[in-house]
Amino acid sequence: MELLKDYTLEIxxxxxxxxxxxxxxxxxxxDVVASLLTTNKNLLRELYALRTEVILPxxxxxxxxxxxxxxVVDRIIEHQKEELELAKLSKRVDEGKGQEFSLKNGMLWxxxxxxxPNIFELKKEILKEAHDSTLMTHPWNTKMYQDLKRNHWWTxxxxxVAKYVARCLTCQKVKIxxxxxxxxxSPLPILVWKWEHITVDFIIGLQRxxxxxxxx
Length: 216
Known about the structure:
The protein is an alpha+beta fold. The chain is about 35% helix and about 10% strand. The strands form two sheets. A four-stranded mixed beta sheet has the order 3-4-5-6. The longest helix is centred in the middle third of the chain and has 12 residues, at about 120-130.
């Protein structure tokens, strides 16, 4: 900004579809990524730690494929066989009764979405990945639900997404709800004697603990 403020600039938008033939200086050599991966062993270890599979051709001239898999999907497939309700649905599919459900490679699908077992920790991990991960920007409940429903399905998913977003401390600090003010505060009268007036506050809707408590 300090440099450009001394110049008189005229910015014109050039649509991408009009750029039929890209200029050569803007094109990176195809073997840059491959050579970087073959020479930088630390980068390869980082990719393997992120469960990213790097496939190089025999001559190592260019990067062929980057395949990313999530451990959550493996856990979903593993727990599908243990979930009683999903086991019943799988049996109905085998009998030809489950019209909207199907079995593909041993996995139960609802239409084109993977069925998630009713396991609290597993669903919490999926919600956290779709909301709090470094690749996401704390989407609001509608946006987050639309993103999740593309690949996942479980009963009551929309309600659980709304509850998870409502409990997010970052969203509560940043995102403002446009609602009518609640009105003036009604202070309690000044007491004359101790234990004359006793009140109890209940805080509900918190994240469940290991003993399944969600209120204070």
